[in-house]
Amino acid sequence: MPVRKLKPVTPSQRFRIINGFDSITTDKPEKSLLVPKKRTGGRNNRGKMTVKYRGGGHKRRYRIIDFKRDKFDITAEVKSIEYDPNRTAFISLVEYKDGEKRYIIAQNGLKLGQNILSGESASPDLGNSLPISNIPLGTIISCIEFSPGKGAVIARSAGSFAQLMAKEGKYATLKLPSGETRMILSKCYATIGAVSNSDNQLISSGKAGRKRWLGIRPRTRPVAMNPVDHPMGGGEGKASGGHPRSKKGIPAKGYRTRSKTVSYTHLTLPTILLV
């Protein structure tokens, strides 16, 4: 999946680096798995801007992705590998033996016509989804569940992966993409292999307009703001802004914000609703 550097026929093309899309097999999505995607422009239900620097961009349709991989012990064939405008990773259209079609996150190295399987009986081969308890130590995995049956939430973006380091009792130790080592229930499912499109980090937009196509508006530097707008704003002349911090005043650069008393591992949606 190499990247391409364009000829500098315009000033903006001079620094533009694009994806070669060599692994993409089709540009026509499966219509039965498309749904409309409403855009908020960063506004809530009262019209108030709650997320800055968001709005505009090209119209998109959402592809329904199967993050749960809950069609167990039924073989599926890879029909296509496609671009998805809603995420950095490529997606793969798979067709099961009973005729059902689903989109999944494509793993790096997934080929057309390849058969994949999900369930406890699946072998630890590329693209297969199985419980962490059945995966050999040292295996590169992605699309990992945090709570059993809830669906993949960890290592889903382009090129990301985790590594299975140890298994002890009902927990497994994973080295996450951030470098953090974390214990996760061994019942949770994970997919073998790293996520596709690892060259995404090498891509350069080349011009500000391409960010606008993606729905991202210009970002104002906090040091250029007034004190009423940001803790780093204000000051005479080109003041440095002090220690870097968010708009709410939380310091950046290693400040720990995770609660030491609350465990997030076992909180599923029904548990939260009952509390």
Structure description:
The chain is mostly beta strands and 275 residues long. The protein folds into 2 domains: 26-42 and 57-200, SH3 type barrels (Roll), CATH 2.30.30.30; 220-275, Ribosomal protein L2, domain 3 (Irregular). It is 4% helix and 23% strand. It is built from 2 helices and 16 strands. The chain has helices spanning 208-213, 269-274, and strands spanning 3-5, 17-19, 34-36, 61-63, 76-82, 91-96, 101-105, 115-116, 129-131, 140-142, 144-145, 152-154, 162-168, 171-175, 181-185, 189-192. The protein has a 6-stranded antiparallel β-sheet, with no helix packed on it. A 4-stranded antiparallel β-sheet has the order 7-6-5-8, with no helix packed on it. A hairpin with a 5-residue loop joins strand 14 and strand 15 (181-185). The longest helix has 6 residues, at 208-213. Residues 267-275 have low confidence and may be disordered.
Strand order of the largest sheet: 9-16-10-13-14-15
How far apart the termini lie comes to 48 Å
The total beta strand count reads 16
The H-and-E topology, N to C, reads as EEEEEEEEEEEEEEEEHH
How would you classify the helix and strand content by structural class? Answer: mainly beta
User: What proportion of the residues is helical, as a percent range?
Assistant: under 10%
> Which radius of gyration do the C-alpha atoms yield?
22 Å
Mean pLDDT reading: 92
Which spans of ≥5 residues are poorly predicted at pLDDT below 50? 267-275
The profile of the biggest β sheet is: 6 strands, antiparallel
Strand proportion, as a percent range, falls in 15-25%
CATH class of the largest domain: Mainly Beta
The CATH topology of the largest domain is given as SH3 type barrels
CATH architecture title of the largest domain? Roll
Shape annotation: globular
Number of domains: 2
Secondary structure tally, helices: 2
